[in-house]
């Protein structure tokens, strides 16, 4: 495997935004309405997300990472302090997204292990992550030792579709 993982920067924010948006389109087809997925994959939407990410470079640069395979952007990772009230003592794996061409080649496991190490650096010993119900990645998180502890209904921001998020818990990272 010829890959690198780099921190979010002003220079790679557009690539992060592009990979994140395209991975959503590929991963959530049939789960999230096509109209919304197409809306977040426009040049304008990716540009807006890029600018938002550049703001994170100043505030939280260590929380966002870009995976390159053979020098090309192939995946993204986000780790953060937890958004779940019941799990404030856990670090959160906020996102792992891979482009379809990078799936099934071990890069998900690479990013998962990297996320655990980053959360340890942040002082966490336990981890949680969410995954939209119906996403095949739920099986990945179970395989990686996640215990399904909660299901949360939410509405997709700026769209209105209601979805369910499965929350997975990892005792020792």
* Mean of residue pLDDT values: 94
Number of helices: 5
For the record, what CATH class of the domain at 3-122 applies? Alpha Beta
User: How do the strands of the widest beta sheet line up side by side?
Assistant: 1-2-3-4-5-7-6
Q: Termini distance?
A: 24 Å
Order of helices and strands: EHHHEEEHEHEE
Spell out the CATH superfamily of the domain at 3-122.
Answer: Gcn5-related N-acetyltransferase (GNAT)
Uncertain regions: pLDDT < 50 for 5+ in a row?
A: none
Largest sheet: 7 strands, mixed
Helix proportion of residues, in percent? 25-40%
Quaternary:
single chain
Q: What form results from the Cα inertia axes?
A: globular
Question: The CATH topology of the domain at 3-122 is what?
Answer: Aminopeptidase
Proportion of strand residues: 25-35%
Query: By helix and strand content, what is the structural category?
Result: alpha+beta
Overall CATH architecture of the domain at 3-122 = 3-Layer(aba) Sandwich
Number of strands: 7
What Rg do the Cα atoms give? 15 Å
């Amino acid at each position: 495997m010829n890959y690198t993982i780099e921190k979010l920067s002003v220079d790679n924010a557009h690539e992060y935004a592009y990979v994140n948006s395209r991975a959503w389109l590929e991963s959530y087809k049939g789960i999230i309405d096509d109209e919304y997925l197409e809306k977040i994959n426009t040049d304008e939407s990716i540009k807006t997300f890029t600018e938002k990410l550049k703001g994170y470079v100043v505030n939280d640069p260590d929380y966002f990472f870009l995976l390159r395979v053979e020098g090309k952007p192939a995946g993204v990772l986000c780790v953060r302090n937890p958004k779940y009230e019941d799990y404030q003592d856990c670090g959160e794996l906020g996102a792992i997204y891979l482009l379809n061409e990078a799936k099934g080649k071990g890069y998900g496991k690479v990013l998962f292990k990297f996320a655990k190490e980053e959360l340890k650096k942040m002082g966490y010993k336990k981890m949680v992550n969410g995954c939209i119900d119906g996403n095949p990645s739920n099986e990945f998180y179970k395989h990686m030792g996640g215990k399904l502890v909660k299901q949360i209904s939410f509405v997709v921001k700026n769209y209105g579709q209601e979805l369910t998020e499965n929350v997975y818990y990892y005792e020792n990272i």
